[in-house]
Records
---
Amino acid sequence: MTIATDTATPIRVRIAPSPTGDPHVGTAYIGLLNFLYARQRAGKFVLRIEDTDRTRFVSTSEQMIFDALRWLGLEWDEGPDVGGPYGPYRQSERTEIYREHVQRLLDSGHAYRSFETAEELEAMRRSQIAAKLPPRYNGAHRELTAAQIAAFEAEGRPAVVRLKVPAEGETAFRDELRGAINFSHNNVDDQVLLKSDGFPTYHLANVVDDHLMRITDVIRAEEWISSTPKHVLLYKAFGWELPRFWHMPLLRNIDKSKISKRKNPVSLIYYRESGFLPQAVLNFLGLMGGGMAQPSEEEIVAKGSSLKQGDIFSLPQMIEKFDFKRISLGGPVFDLTKLKWLNGEYLRALSPEAFFQALRATVFSDEYLRRIAPLVQTRIETLAQFGEMTDFFFKDDVMPAPEVFVPKKRTLEETLDFAAEQLAVLEATPFTAEELEPALKKLGAEKEWPVKDNFMLLRAILTGRTASPPLLESLIVFGKARSLDRMRRFIDAQKRLAATRR
Ligand code: GLU
């Protein structure tokens, strides 16, 4: 559908992921919705990288975000790697712009500098908690005199810049899916806008960029609703027009909690490397918003198709039919079983040649085989033994029995607890032999697990067996996303099994 907009303003939307790790399914979900919105309205879809939080920055993440979005077919019109008229599109390259804007707010009295030390802020927080008050900045430095400021500066205290939220009243805005939303200023903190390291916070950079990049519609996840009053106050302080806000229902685990890696693979890399087809993933994410009309009974009868086939649609069909007004606010459930079913439908619909090509592009790619081959070359006597040696690289699941993975003198429970510790270490460690080995050994030393048992357990989880090609190299070739998933599945399944045995 092409929707005529009532104003002459061209539609511009954006996604603004932070490069803090693997690209997330939530980014793809919000990316798809923004993409559809832009394509339906002859608008522009912008990709902006929000990399101002240097403590969570992961240098490889940005490229992974680009690759994952392209794999899905969600091409952006403007972004760090493709340029555009409103760049730079990477926030770390825009710090001067933020500083100028903060100065404007300081000059107009909408912001102020606050000089508390970390200890003072901590003491403030503690006393508020003790008094059963919600912890927030108490406004102590809102009205400092020039002399007080000069004294703090002479002490060499670092300062942050805070937004001066009006003491009374409320901030109201419209959410396109929910209608009017009001936040009493009692519940809005004097947000930090510029940190003492000179970097802006998310709130400031996000608003300044959305304005300067002429974003007309902010389509993002529901979790940002509580930030929106701060953003609205900023737009007002600058004297800027508000964009439209659309807060999309959060993806949920089957138990309705917010989607998390504990309960679902959330890395797009996992889906790509496990042989999910991008069309199936997009189709599945398109179902999440509830924006696709299900076919009517008549259509189903006319086509002679089954009801469930109403769930299957392509990206062009979504551009044609997806209706933002239909989006329902009940949290869409990210049901992996359904995604697998859908992926199966897509696989079955491929021609034999396309199916073969899909295998060769992913789980049997030359690149993958080329990395596996050297791990077994010295360990086999006939080429046919390649299969036995490497089966775990080609399986979706391996599930060793306790006889295989529980070391002598350990209980099942202790072993599963240690496996969970290994998982946490692997999550936090870059997948290179130089980093993995010391990290795992350090864990073993801390928990008093001998190196042999430590690595044997990991080997059993990854390969299902006690003998395998070199372990760390195998983990690396199998890939971080799939290795972590295998471990999580192993731990979950074994815990469930252990509970039934009790
Ligand atoms: N950087 C935020 C994120 O990581 C952007 C949120 C927004 O769209 O405003 O999701």
Note: The longest strand covers residues 170-175.
---
Amino acid sequence: MSNTKYIFVTGGVTSSLGKGIIAASLAKLLQAQDFKVTIQKFDPYINVDPGTLNPYEHGECFVTDDGAETDLDLGHYERFLNVKTSQANNVTTGRIYQSVIEKERRGEFLGKTVQVIPHITNEIKERMQLLGESGEYDIVITEIGGTVGDIESLPYIESVRQLIWDLGKENALVIHLTLIPYLAAAGELKTKPTQHSVKTLMESGISADIIVCRTEHELSTELREKLALFCNVKSESIIQSIDVDTIYDVPLKMRDEGLDKVVLEKLQMTPKKPLDLKPWNVFLDKFKNPKHRIKIGLVGKYVELQDSYKSILESLIHAGAVNETEIEVVSIHSEHLEEGNVAKPLDKLHGLIVAPGFGERGIEGKISAIAHARAHKLPFFGICLGMQMAVIEYARNHVGIPKANSTEMDTDCHEAVIDLMESQKSIVKKGGTMRLGAWDCELQAESKAAAAYQKKTVSERHRHRYEFNNDFADRIFDENFIIAGTNPETGLVEIIEYNDHPWFVGVQFHPEYKSTVSDPHPLFVAFVQASLMQKAKK
Ligand code: GLN
């Protein structure tokens, strides 16, 4: 057995309290004391992965190097810690059941009735310990999705109960994140919902070791003591998580509250070195004290939901900070652009991103926005579908193929400049079957991309079924519209650029999945620089 210690993070009272950010912030504090830490998320829904969910359901789908379609919290883990996650870091009820049912069909439980306890809980426990048993990590933090008391969370909570028993109290602890609501009419913070949710956990045999309280107002000493008394913890284990302007402040707030200290003490661990958050503070300082300010338009069809483009928004924060630039992201609904004047919403911008997406809705708006950006020399960054639409725009408006389209939008299209990949044509199942995960891309030396990356070959993450149709390469590409990156194995076009322009780059992959606080993505950094120049010109 390895010496790995386990921390479980559960949630109570309401959803959306930010368990992922608390888990990532704690991990950051532990990492800054030289511990090797990873975070995994267990989600109670029955989808095998979030790949088949639309962003309105569960926000963005994050993709790992090994091609797992995962919960967006894994994005926070990677951005905070700068360590890669994988398939093993995100498990859903669907995956657990799928695996148990496959075992049953293979006859692994022959003669036995397969039940939630012990078969499902054993499968959960095995997966909870998978990363820990690799010996790579000192500490594994496991976030349990959902809210304590939900029917669907029960098998996870029971598994945590059993695991703590197996591992021993000194090797495992539970952090319970709750809400302390403020009743404006009474002018008071209320502890009762937290008391109830801690009690619900106790009914399942788990006593929370640390309670992190989301709150809009400071918790007084009396309130902390009251909570401690009713929730069966010491008052130093009541951790206040007050609302902050940026999620990147949360590690500092958690340090001030002593979360890492209480955790280490309970796990009987001593810091390997004094806490060092210098690089984090350098980033925060630049982020909070910008010298410049620009407006970037983000065109998409899910813009009303912040979480849909989480990684893009965070990548802009990272790239903004290194450039000491505050970025105001102007969300533009692609369908609204279809209704009329494109110039009006785009004129005030210094750069334009056209977001990834699926399906036909809003694509004509995206194409009009790209046409405007190309003609008016507005810095443009097209991501996945955004790149595909840039090809269609050039084919229609410059090359003279008015019916150019993608077969995703028009299955009978004769001029399919974007078409289903050969490898996709026989695929009928939707789940986990796209071109996923990390693929190499060789860069054309004389390109904006090569200038940004300062490399010849890069590896980027993918999530798409359609691609540039190479049958059209000779007709479409010219001295101004170039292929700036290709996949060496398959010859697939990965990056296109338009040269008669300050910065016009479209990428088939998703650079946003690889930007972190300590490693902002070179393409986002270069795009922000181009947008800054655009502002200077204006
Ligand atoms: N819908 C497009 C495809 O499947 C683009 C996908 C994306 O933007 N992630 O190829």
Note: The mean pLDDT is 95.
